[in-house]
Amino acid sequence: MTTKPGAGLAGITAGETAISSVGKEGMGLNYRGYSIYELAEHASFEEVAYLLIRGKLPTSQQLKVYIRHLMSLRNLPDALKTVLELTPGQSHPMDVLRSGCSVLGTLEPETPENDEYHIADRLIATFPGMLLYWYHYHQNGKKIDTNVSNESTAGYFLHLLHLKEPEPLQTRAMDVSLILYAEHEFNASTFAARVTASTGADFYSAICSAIGTLRGPLHGGANEQAMELIEKFTSPDEAQTQLHEMLKNKSLIMGFGHRVYKTSDPRSNVIKHWSKLLADSVNDQILYPVSERIEKIMWDEKRLFPNLDFYSASAYHFCGIPTNMFTPIFVFARTAGWAAHIIEQRQNNKLIRPLAEYTGPSPRPYVPVEQRVSSSIQDS
Ligand code: ACO
Which of these ranges, 17-21, 129-133, 216-220, 278-282, has the smallest mean pLDDT? Predict the structure, then answer.
């Protein structure tokens, strides 16, 4: 079947946004006008979350207050802890976050007092704790205290995961990764959040839609699948041989290609740099060289480039993060972008309801059940 122009809304402008601009040639991704290169170099994730949700960079005093505010919102309600304890230990962590978000929405529903800004901050503050409370309860039989004192979301997550103070290099790498993942215009999960928000639904429902949409391997789930690919190989040469085979069989190589970018993903080189620093810090001799070889083959053979997910996979692995937590980290970060988009959608709302081109049968008379005859062997 041939793909029609506009399939998957490719190339269609589906609305306006003042939150980010995505350069079509792989250049110039900006959050509210600021280059992601400058933000990744100089800012913290909390500064970027403030920028995205509140529309402007915080002053140093505002940033201090914001960080304290996020820290004060980390406690998990007892009822939520009980649900996390009852959630099966073998669940996918994305399902844990989707359910956790929904439960929080029943315990602390959106009201004029508990407004969209407060819920956005609360979710950013609680998602790492939700995930790791569930993880330690089921993996180690421990009910962890989620109120640890790391200021950054990155350090907080690593501390709760490893139950010790994280290393500064890993913390900063995670911080940069959260900045890079925080926002990306009308990507699938953000669009899903906006569609839900456009119906007048509550904030939590829009975030649940976004989490469900992010989970798929063509979107956020690609970072986990990229890791599964990279760790299959014991050397760059083995990767080369097998990758050629996979390409011959028309396999999709996860972590490569992009719907909007055509020559490179501007975020990829930034996370690649951090992946290399982390690889050197653990004296890795396999995963990073394998990743670079895969990158070279994909470019030579298909003119496809790594997207943000590809080198994020090895970077996270070097930080000791289990693979099935890679997409949840995307959630921690992208909640800032989703929140900004839900707020923007609500400010100038119009129900999102496109048309479909009908391809089914022409109008025909209804046949009562007793008069229907089977028309094929499969029907019998
Ligand atoms: N591996 C192998 N071939 C690929 C890949 C890939 N990763 N990506 C695209 N191609 C090929 C397609 O098979 C297709 O070839 P054909 O014309 O011979 O059929 C051609 O390139 C065009 O690809 P489409 O799927 O039509 O491009 P689309 O814009 O629909 O897809 C997408 C973009 C979904 C990201 C795609 O590149 C893909 O599936 N990549 C792997 C999943 C992935 O990494 N997703 C993460 C996205 S970024 C993010 O969420 C941070």
Answer: 216-220
pLDDT at residue 380 in the model: 46
Whole-number Å distance, alpha carbon 35 to ligand 1 midpoint, is 26
Q: In this model, does residue 119 exceed pLDDT 80?
A: yes
The CATH number of residue 237's host domain is: 1.10.230.10
Dump pLDDT digits (tens) for 228-251.
999 999 999 999 999 999 999 999
- 127 domain residue, yes or no: yes
How close is the Cα of 218 to the center of ligand 1, in Å? Answer: 8
Q: Are residues 207 and 135 in the same domain?
A: yes
**Structure-model confidence comparison of residues 259 and 342, the more confident one:** 342
Domain that holds residue 143: 19-212+326-347
Q: The tokens of 76 are what? A: 């998990």
The percent helix, strand, coil of the chain (3-state, each to 5) is: 60, 0, 40
Ligand 1 contact, 222 CB (< 6 A) = yes
228 lies in the same domain as 112 = no
Q: How confident is the model at residue 19 (pLDDT cuts 50, 70, 90)?
A: very high
Residue 193 shares a structural domain with residue 60: yes
**Residue 354 burial (10 A CB sphere; 0-12, 13-18, 19+):** exposed
CB of 254 closer than 8 Å to CB of 218:
no
